[in-house]
């Protein structure tokens, strides 16, 4: 059904990079934030400034992860181990929370300035699912998930939303752990073996594999098809329109 095994009965979508064209905005916001932090660290310690790579570092350390986890992961890759701090830390404070808040402020500003566009192929695919009466969910690490869906005009397409707010409230570990996807499947009343996960992030496809989902669709927006397969994708497409039966291109298993 729609490019996937016939026993798939529920469809769970990541947000940034799968449904909406915001992954590049997040990468730019992380670069802006980390470069400012790394410059300040270089000035403080007298060491060299090596900027954040918005492709390699983004994919390896922050893409698909909760914001605080992304901050910890990247900074530790540079040998920086910050104190945690608290939610009350101001943006840019030398804590995990301070750096993370600076990133959030930056991405919200960029979204306000640039707007949010959905991927046309993803909208077409979700519309087809809705026409067939099939349940859908969004599973995102972002605490801004609902705002982004609303800005893109697609909030009403989904039965369940498990985002960063829900994960924090319910104590769910973020991707690559499978817990947020498993929570969405439970909310839809479907066993993981009968649900499909749609992800563009390596951490996301890893979470789909770890959760035992019946299909894990890797959406290759940046030329990392091999890495998506390596980390858990059972199908890789460049755009979800490829999974619609009358689309001229076929997905590669």
TrEMBL record:
Keyword tags: Carbohydrate metabolism, Hydrolase, Isomerase, Magnesium, Metal-binding, Phosphoprotein
Catalytic reaction list: beta-D-glucose 1-phosphate = beta-D-glucose 6-phosphate
EC number per UniProt: 5.4.2.6
Group of enzyme by EC: isomerase
Keyword Phosphoprotein (UniProt): yes
Top-level lineage group: Bacteria
Cofactor annotation: Mg(2+)
Pfam families on file: Hydrolase
GO-annotated molecular function: hydrolase activity
Similarity remark: Belongs to the HAD-like hydrolase superfamily. CbbY/CbbZ/Gph/YieH family.
NCBIfam families linked to this entry: HAD-SF-IA-v3, PGMB-YQAB-SF
Protein name per UniProt: Beta-phosphoglucomutase
Organism: Kitasatospora putterlickiae
